[in-house]
Amino acid sequence: MRRNVLFNTAGSLLFYICQAAITLLVTALAGAEANGLLATGMTIANVCLSAASYGMRTFQVSDLSGKYTDRSYLFSRYITLTAAGLGCLVFSFVNSYSAEQRWVIFLYTGYRLIESWSDVWHGYLQKAERIDIVGISFGVRGIVTALSVTLGLLLTKDLVLTLAVLFALNAAYVLVVDIPLARRRADFKRTGGAGVKTLLVECLPLAVYAFLNTTIASVPRYYCERILGSVKLGYFNNVFLPVMILQVAVIYLFVPFITTFARLWTDRNGKGFYKGLRLLGAALVALWIVGTIGVALLARLVGQAAAIFGGCDVEIVEAHHNRKADAPSGTALLLADAVKARRPDAAYVFGRAGHHPRQPNEIGIHSLRMGNVVGEHEVIFATDNQTITLKHQAHDRALFAEGALAAADFLQGQPAGLYHMEDLLGP
Predict the structure, then answer these.
(1) 398-411 and 270-288 helices, crossing angle to 10°
(2) Which of 27, 113, 281, 303 is the most exposed place for a label (fewest CB within 10 A)?
């Protein structure tokens, strides 16, 4: 189980980090306008992927009694893939997209639908409890994705051509590697069982749930593009990248447990079932902890200083490496919120330009991007007669692991409840 969890989680996370990094790569190598075209394609592709996958993977890998044959699962997937592809085609022509935008939508959606195509084959591997192979597949395809986008844009400067290469390489990997490995573990000779139509009807509630869950997040993006334009949508997508990566990590952390839980439940192995639950819970806690003790302490000190020096000017300066796309950082906003909690009328000012005097209630927030800076946050409290500076500087990314270990140690012996990094600091 641990091998499956390790390889699947690491590979899946690498794949989706590389996939998420596409927006950053396109912004850096092709510009904000190209990233806007891609963001629109992503919005549509996410919904199509949900429709094509039909929420069936969970059902497939937990069908230990063999109610449906492996052939039925495969045929049903080809039906949903075809429906999703046609839906993408119709939607792109119903809306007034440019020819370039339509090509971006078609190619990126095709690239995402490869996930749904491989998903049913990965289901056969998972039922054979070889989801470590699935994790390796995701990891390799993630690296292929990042390299093909980078090299494609550097060599051609053409987003459409780059996406075409991306689609072709991922399809080739699934065809040459994933399918042969999965075919050895699938049983296509077995006949009988319920038919494809019955399978689609039984999984319909799962499909509706998955479709609506994805659509809820996609509708605001669609209207953002329709009202504000694709460039603004590109900015929107970049801001939410960290949240998306964490969300995907949590989802794919659970996937390897599905078949194991189903088997343990069927065998009435309560001891093994609850052991798996504990392992899964520990992994989720580790992912949940994304802050550090140092930042939590800084936020508390900032709030206390804002209360003591009520009338002073407050300025926040944060610095990160030159590859960080979003600004200001989430930590800078956390610190600003700590001040605002003591000064409800405070107004955030991001950078300064032009000619106007500083207002008493302003909180200035400034971002620096340079070199390989891990992370620096400085909060300055200034009056006419003195200046007080609170600063946190990260020297190594290992501090995130240190914070996670400290939090795990703190949780031992604590009663059930919701805790925050600030709780580690005491009252």
Answers:
(1) 130
(2) 281
**Of 319, 316, 335, nearest to 375 (Cα)?**
319
Can you read off the two tokens belonging to residue 60? 């497939």
Catalytic residue check, 392 = no
Select which of 67, 157, 197, 324 is catalytic.
Answer: 324
pLDDT, tens only, 238-283: 655 655 555 555 555 555 565 566 667 667 777 777 777 776 666 6
Q: What is the residue type of 279?
A: L
Tell me which H or E stretch contains 369: strand 362-369
For 97, other C-beta atoms within 10 Å of its C-beta total: 20
Q: What distance in Å separates the CA atoms of residue 135 and residue 161, rounded to the nearest whole number?
A: 28
* C-beta neighbour count of 285 within 10 angstroms: 14
Pairing verdict, β 313-320 and 362-369: parallel
Question: Residue range 27-44: average pLDDT?
Answer: 88
Burial class for 399, CB neighbours closer than 10 Å (0-12, 13-18, 19+) = middle
Using alpha carbons, select from 115, 106, 48 the residue that is nearest to residue 80: 48
SS3 391: strand
Among positive and negative, which fits the CA dihedral 330, 332, 334, 337? negative
- Nearest CA to 164 among 105, 90, 119? 105
What percentage of the chain has pLDDT greater than the value 70? 76
Q: Is 320 a catalytic residue?
A: yes
The active-site residue, picked from 67, 157, 232, 320, is: 320
